[in-house]
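I had to read the description of the data format several times before I understood it. Each protein is reduced to its one-letter sequence and a matching series of backbone shape codes. The format is easy to grasp once an entry is in front of the reader. For illustration, here is how one protein appears when written out as sequence plus structure tokens:
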Amino acid sequence: MPEKDDVSKIHDKYSLSLINPSSHYISLAISIVIAGLIGAFTAATYLGSTDLLFPTIAVIGALVGTQFLDILFSKHKEYSKSLHVSLFGNGLFFVSTLIGFGAMGLFEKDGLDLFYVTMGMIVFASFRIGIFTTILGASLKKAWAVAFIQPLAMYLVLIPPEMWVSSLTNPIALFFGVIFLGLATAWAYLTDKAGRPGLKSTHELIQAYVTSMSRKDPDPLEKIIEQSATESTVSTSQLRFESSDKEDDFRMVLPDIHPGPFHPIGGSNITDLIYKKMDSAAMVMHSISNHDLNLPTQKEVQNYLNSLQESKVQQGGAVCTEPVAVTINKARAGGLLFDRTALLFLSLSPHGMEDLPPNVRSEIEQFAKNRNFEQVMIVDTHNAMGKDISKEDSEDLLLAAKSTLDTLKTKQSHPFKFGFANSENMELTENDIAGGGIAVLCLEINNKKYFLGWADANNMENGVRETIVKHFADNGSELIEICTSDTHYTASGARNRNGYHQLGVLSKPPELSNWYFDLAQKAESKIKEGSFEVLEHQTNVKVMGPTIFSEYSKIMDKTMNITKYCLIADAGLFLAAIFL
């Protein structure tokens, strides 16, 4: 298996952002329950009290009241984040008291000591130092100032006043407490510096990421990314169809720009924006490119979109061949030839793969040049989920592509007709379909009709393509291929390891099949004689480049290692406290 690239390594850590509940109201409810359990459990066990109602209500009251104080110390004054902090902090507090109670029972100690309750409070405060410095944007000084507010308030309403001094001045508790707090402070300091010298503050990067996800505000993160972005010349190819009466116009667009990095940053929604730029009569395909070619900011997105009007016609004509398809093992290549320009569709569906590597593109382009093709437009269909393509599958895909090109050279060309239909009036609301919706192109070649499907979606659930192709075949129609744009837009956060919903996860395959076939019939009803033009354009834009992902991957690895060592130290420290 090939080694994971930096983008994959970063994406693997995305699941860490799914730890907190989907709603802050859930965090609030669970926090209240845990706080109540802390109050009742501590009163019944450590304090030996029969009155559980008052300590339970008192601790809950302290929790809710201090949550509002937390807002004053957070960068964006967000109540939701305060609730998430309370949930995990109170969880640590409760677990500490439970472990302490179990340890004292296990070692048959004479009486229950408030040492473990005090330790739980200090562990809670230590956790808050880490969270306030990383997520909530507080300095170390502010984090220390706020760290004890909630834990200490809950502690003081729970423990009788006459026991405050003895429990809080316990030398052993103070000894372990100082070490816990020191570890939290060291962790906050070291992780913030983990990105230097390339990145001034790791915490600022984390906060900018959280802001982009929670507030849909791209500015803070885009400013950080732009500092490391690089100038690059990118190409955009278009295959434009125009009806003989000049009334209908359709474009198939292959930008070198890769959608991403993630919504709402940079060019995450670039495919829909191009689609709208082309008056919603287009299919924005996924070329053979990768995340190095992400646009880092909205400004660069607009620069790129504005440059498309400068595209120049390279070739034109009014004939094309019937489609050809070649399958070798898992690999499948399909294509048509428009005069001397070949259009290729590459897929491993239903097995799937990640973005095709650049060498596949360069080898196919060189082969096409050797065979005297004017140009080859290569579409990475992105129609099944999978990992990085294996060497064997890559070789099979190259063989299939070359065989398709050789076969196209032998095919006779014919005048063609075309018709296009999109889903703009279908009111599709599923979150696995982005703003461009779905669309179908109908081509009539040599008195035979062929269809091409498209979706503005981030990949496709395995097997969905085959379901739709079969539905067309069962109704006497031929679907050449169905492609997705690989958009990185998400209307609402997808709480899964992928960070998005691939087409066919929320929209069910039978529904999709019917939608596509309905569009195919509409497209067929609109066919007219057509001609084509091949347009090309190159423009200079800032892209993210490989350096950013490499550096961010190293920073994350370094930060995770620091975290791992600190957690091991914390666990060892708490274990030592248990055996006292």
About this structure: The radius of gyration is 30 Å. Residues 21-214+552-578 form one domain. The mean pLDDT is 92.
